[in-house]
């Protein structure tokens, strides 16, 4: 590994698609590479993503803004508002050379690659496991310093892929095998980044998976029944129950979908600290700017987490969230979360309030909205404040861009 003493640290942001928090923070999956990074840096134990769909989630990560402000409210038809400043633009203005290696739906047409000097959107499916690794390592070692790199990888996304020596499964075991293999195969990438590089590891959202092959088949039957028998029209209660059995992401704001790992390690990061307070993806841009001594864009929704990293306190702030996946058919679920409560507002205005039981298992089955009016008002007001920011500039796509994105989503199996 190289050592350096430049004024600015190199910055490497790794976003692993569909990586849920308990896959890294729990004990069921062996992840020694992630564990070493966490022990050498700061692990945020309660990090919350903004959206359970890739493109809106990245838009918030890379701008520090919530969706009403950056304008990306789904996978189709939205382009990042020109009035918000991206993470790449922030670092480029400070003299960094910025690179992006992404995959899945993160096409240039979305606008989220704005500010990168070089970017590549790789094929997601039907490619060998980690087929990108050697080229990325070679590029990383050739970068002129200081550099900023965003690497988005797809190996943990359904259908779960793993190296040839792993059994291919479509259930919990398949997901966990993909996470374990990804942890192992990433070790040379972190080594290439260098000891003095500021490293970030997170997931863009979590994942919901069947616990066994039998449950996977049952879920397929439930999905087919909803479509064939039009349960939403004739049996709405049963349709809602079956909808709750969905797998993947984007269709809900369950804890396993909104909680993601967040690890910062390397240069300018204190070692061996765990932060239990709730933090948000929108806090990543101001935190990195703070650690690197850069000016942060004005008017963003996030804040620097450096006080937490230094052992100090910050006032508690809720997290705003959206579910806008294709499975919702154009509907949107919005929510606000604190460590104790999560308020969800589904289409039609129905509200659900769930008790999260910090330190224990969250209760997402019972609705406490009727008995907790003060909590409802607080979180409802927060949602209203976020939504009032509105899109500050046109964020739509041209018809040609929309056609390109739609075809790409069909190739990925979303449509």
Supply the key terms.
single chain; alpha/beta; Alkaline Phosphatase, subunit A; 2 domains; 8-stranded mixed β-sheet; 4-stranded antiparallel β-sheet; 18% strand; globular; disordered N terminus
Briefly summarize what is shown.
The protein is of the alpha/beta class.
Describe this structure in words.
This protein is an alpha/beta fold. The protein folds into 2 domains: about 10-210 and about 250-315, Alkaline Phosphatase, subunit A (3-Layer(aba) Sandwich), CATH 3.40.720; about 210-245. It is about 35% helix and about 20% strand. The protein contains 16 helices and 12 strands. The strands form 2 sheets. It has an 8-stranded mixed sheet with strand order 4-3-5-1-6-7-2-8, with helices on both faces. The model is unreliable at about 1-5 (pLDDT under 50).
Number of domains: 2
The structural class is alpha/beta
- In total, how many beta strands? 12
Main beta sheet strand tally, sense and closure: 8 strands, mixed
What top-tier CATH class of the largest domain fits best?
Alpha Beta
Number of helices: 16
What CATH architecture of the largest domain do you see? Answer: 3-Layer(aba) Sandwich
From the 3D structure, determine the CATH topology of the largest domain: Alkaline Phosphatase, subunit A
Shape type: globular
What kind of oligomer do you see? single chain
Order of helices and strands: EHHEHHHEEHEHHEHHHHEEHHEEEEHH
Strand content: 15-25%
Q: For the residues shown, what is the average pLDDT?
A: 90
Distance between the termini: 44 Å
Strand arrangement in the largest pleated sheet = 4-3-5-1-6-7-2-8
Which stretches are poorly predicted, pLDDT < 50 over at least 5 residues? 1-5
> Compute the gyration radius: what is it?
20 Å
The CATH superfamily of the largest domain is known as Alkaline Phosphatase, subunit A
Helical proportion? 25-40%
């Amino acid at each position: 590994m190289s050592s350096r003493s430049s004024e600015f640290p190199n910055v490497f942001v790794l976003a692993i698609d569909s990586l849920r928090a308990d896959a890294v923070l729990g004990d069921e999956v062996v992840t020694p590479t992630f564990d070493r990074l966490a022990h050498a840096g700061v692990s945020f134990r309660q990090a919350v993503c903004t959206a359970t769909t890739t493109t809106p989630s990245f838009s918030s990560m890379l701008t520090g803004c919530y969706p009403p402000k950056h304008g990306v409210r789904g996978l189709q038809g939205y382009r990042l508002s020109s009035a918000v400043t991206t993470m790449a633009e922030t670092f480029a203005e400070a003299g960094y050379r910025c690179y992006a290696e992404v995959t899945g739906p993160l096409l240039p047409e979305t606008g989220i690659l704005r500010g990168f000097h070089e970017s590549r959107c790789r094929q997601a499916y039907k490619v060998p496991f980690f087929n990108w690794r050697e080229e990325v390592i070679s590029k990383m070692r050739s970068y002129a310093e200081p550099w900023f790199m965003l690497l988005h990888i797809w190996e943990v996304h359904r259908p779960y892929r793993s190296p040839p020596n792993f059994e291919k499964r479509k259930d919990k075991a398949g997901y966990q095998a993909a996470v374990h293999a990804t942890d192992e195969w990433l070790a040379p990438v972190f080594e290439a980044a260098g000891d003095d590089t500021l490293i970030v590891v997170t997931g863009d959202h979590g994942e919901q998976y069947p616990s066994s092959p039998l449950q996977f088949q049952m879920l397929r039957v439930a999905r087919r029944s909803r479509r064939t028998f039009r349960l939403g029209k004739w049996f709405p209660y049963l349709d809602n129950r079956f909808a709750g059995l969905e797998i993947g992401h984007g269709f809900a704001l369950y804890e396993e979908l909104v909680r993601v790992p967040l690890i910062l390690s390397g240069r300018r990061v204190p070692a061996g600290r765990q932060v239990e307070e709730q933090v948000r993806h929108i806090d990543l841009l101001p935190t990195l700017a703070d650690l690197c001594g850069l000016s942060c864009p004005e008017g963003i929704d996030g804040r620097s987490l450096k006080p937490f990293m230094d052992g100090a306190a910050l006032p508690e702030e809720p997290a705003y969230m959206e579910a806008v996946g294709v499975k919702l058919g154009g509907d949107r679920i919005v929510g606000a979360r604190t460590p104790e409560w999560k308020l969800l507002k589904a289409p039609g205005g129905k509200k659900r309030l769930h008790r999260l039981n910090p330190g224990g298992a969250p209760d997402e089955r019972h609705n406490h909205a009727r008995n907790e009016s003060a909590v409802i008002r607080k979180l409802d007001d927060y949602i209203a404040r976020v939504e009032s920011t509105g899109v500050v500039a046109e964020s739509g796509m041209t018809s040609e861009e929309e056609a390109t994105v739609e075809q790409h989503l069909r190739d990925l199996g979303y449509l």
